[in-house]
Design goal:
By secondary structure, the chain is of the alpha+beta class. The chain has one domain. It contains three helices and nine strands, in the order H-E-E-E-E-H-E-E-E-E-E-H. It starts with 7 loop residues before the first helix and ends in a 12-residue tail after the last helix.
Amino acid sequence: MALRTLPARKRLKSNHFDSMKINNKRLLQNIALFLMVAGLVTFIATRVDNNNGRGEVFATLYDKSIGDEATEIIIHAEGNDDIVLQNNNNVWMITKPFEAQADPQKVQQLFTLLAENAETSYPIEGKNLAQYGLDKDTLSISFNGVKMLFGKYNEITQQRYILKGDRMYLITEAISGVMKSGADAFKLRQKN
């Protein structure tokens, strides 16, 4: 059998449609990411413990000063350049230390911190913050300017101390590793 090649006009149309498919796929991914973030914020804001019958709202690290939609995330990890992520029309971009499109899955992972239960929290007044690793900014994240410092890991509770404002929280978190890995870890990798 002889191989047939498409005429130039059909090849051009085919490439155009392939390009449109890729753009539509990206648009769908961005819409899905936006809906997940909006759902997460709604979930956090309305989560109620129905098991105890008292209707108590669980405490989380999310608060109204972050807003309904995060537009900027800043990550500080000692020994690495600060990472600035900005939401531009539902596309997360790395704007510092270099410019590139951010991996939506990595950005989504950062938002999990805001949904973690903060069943234990303490006012910091009178506390020795160095004892909890919260006296220096060695690892922190800011959502729309609301900063959270990461402290020591408590081996007994298997939770991390986090300082936000004038309160210290014990949180089960899974993002400190990716935060320490540098800006390249947040860069969107093109699939071939």
